[in-house]
């Protein structure tokens, strides 16, 4: 039996988006860790690059977009996008990669799961089990490198995670992912202008810093977030929250490639836990729950 085309599209979109999320972490750490650029300038260039690439994509696909539902994003999504981006950059100034990732994606997961429960969606036992397994794998990967975070850094990264969780929740209703993402980015323009005004005196920019920020904004953010909105069409709130726990695993692999770190048994073990937990959540929703609902009553 051939796999459903929409299912393949959702899987491919999810994988691409997760790779983009991990790339953002690596690019941000490379830029700020090497003092190639300051946090405000990185955020500004990142968002402006996202706007430019998305406007170009809108123009290139204008004819196909004309037959899709009209969509221009929302100020709520744009606000969450900007808060996520600025808090993400400043949070990493005082946090190492592992600690920042744990706080960020822990906040994302909790925000989305709590939103799902508050809206009346009950989690199946298998979903809770998968959630716990994936989170334990995440913690198992990060714990050896954890340091006591500064209160400021902790709060900034937690706010970033909450904002990204809310941005993701808003995106689940998108009928035209490209248009919504493009307008969400464009709506951050007033916030970018304010950031330019207040961050001008402390600006520190190098060619490498600009290059890393553009890569983060145009590819990992602009295109990555557009593809993420496509993926969200086929993911439940719980699934969208849990699959993002895979991002730190990808980021850790990126660290091995770009910082010459060694592949450790702990990385392999934690990856297996995270992937196993994600698979359990997906199977729990699509198979166990659905089969239980279709099972005929006992006569």
UniProtKB/TrEMBL annotation:
<dbReference type="GO" id="GO:0016020">
    <property type="term" value="C:membrane"/>
</dbReference>
<feature type="transmembrane region" description="Helical">
    <location>
        <begin position="206"/>
        <end position="228"/>
    </location>
</feature>
<protein>
    <submittedName>
        <fullName>DMT family transporter</fullName>
    </submittedName>
</protein>
<keyword id="KW-0812">Transmembrane</keyword>
<keyword id="KW-1133">Transmembrane helix</keyword>
<feature type="transmembrane region" description="Helical">
    <location>
        <begin position="73"/>
        <end position="95"/>
    </location>
</feature>
<feature type="transmembrane region" description="Helical">
    <location>
        <begin position="101"/>
        <end position="121"/>
    </location>
</feature>
<feature type="transmembrane region" description="Helical">
    <location>
        <begin position="182"/>
        <end position="200"/>
    </location>
</feature>
<keyword id="KW-0472">Membrane</keyword>
<feature type="domain" description="EamA">
    <location>
        <begin position="152"/>
        <end position="282"/>
    </location>
</feature>
<dbReference type="InterPro" id="IPR000620">
    <property type="entry name" value="EamA_dom"/>
</dbReference>
<dbReference type="InterPro" id="IPR050638">
    <property type="entry name" value="AA-Vitamin_Transporters"/>
</dbReference>
<dbReference type="InterPro" id="IPR037185">
    <property type="entry name" value="EmrE-like"/>
</dbReference>
<feature type="domain" description="EamA">
    <location>
        <begin position="11"/>
        <end position="141"/>
    </location>
</feature>
<dbReference type="Pfam" id="PF00892">
    <property type="entry name" value="EamA"/>
</dbReference>
<feature type="transmembrane region" description="Helical">
    <location>
        <begin position="240"/>
        <end position="258"/>
    </location>
</feature>
<feature type="transmembrane region" description="Helical">
    <location>
        <begin position="270"/>
        <end position="288"/>
    </location>
</feature>
<feature type="transmembrane region" description="Helical">
    <location>
        <begin position="43"/>
        <end position="61"/>
    </location>
</feature>
<feature type="transmembrane region" description="Helical">
    <location>
        <begin position="153"/>
        <end position="170"/>
    </location>
</feature>
<feature type="transmembrane region" description="Helical">
    <location>
        <begin position="128"/>
        <end position="147"/>
    </location>
</feature>
């Amino acid at each position: 039996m051939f796999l459903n085309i929409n299912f393949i599209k959702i899987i491919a979109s999810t994988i691409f988006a997760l790779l983009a999320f991990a790339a953002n972490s690596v690019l941000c750490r490379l830029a700020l860790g090497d003092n190639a650029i300051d946090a405000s300038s990185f955020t500004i260039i990142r968002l402006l690059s996202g706007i430019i690439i998305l406007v170009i994509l809108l123009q290139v696909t204008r004819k196909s977009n004309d037959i899709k539902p009209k969509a221009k994003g929302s100020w709520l999504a744009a606000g969450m996008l900007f808060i996520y981006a600025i808090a993400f950059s400043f949070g990493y100034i005082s946090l190492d990669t592992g600690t920042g990732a744990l706080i960020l994606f822990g906040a994302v997961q909790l925000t989305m799961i709590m939103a799902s429960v508050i809206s009346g969606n009950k989690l199946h036992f298998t979903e809770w089990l998968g959630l716990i397994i994936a989170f334990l794998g995440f913690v198992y990967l990060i714990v050896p490198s954890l340091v006591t975070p500064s209160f400021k850094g902790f709060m900034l990264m937690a706010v970033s995670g909450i904002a990204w969780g809310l941005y993701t929740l808003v995106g689940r209703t998108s009928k035209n992912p490209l248009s919504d993402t493009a307008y969400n980015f464009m709506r951050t323009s007033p916030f970018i202008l304010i950031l330019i005004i207040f961050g001008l005196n402390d600006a520190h920019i190098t060619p490498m810093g600009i290059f890393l920020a553009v890569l983060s904004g145009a590819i990992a953010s602009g295109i990555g977030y557009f593809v993420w909105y496509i993926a969200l069409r086929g993911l439940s709130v719980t699934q969208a929250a849990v699959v993002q726990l895979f991002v730190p695993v990808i980021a850790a692999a990126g660290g091995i490639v770009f910082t010459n770190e060694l592949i450790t048994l702990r990385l392999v073990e934690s990856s297996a836990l995270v992937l196993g937990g994600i698979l359990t959540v997906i199977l729990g929703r699509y198979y166990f729950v659905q089969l239980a609902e279709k099972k005929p009553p006992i006569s």
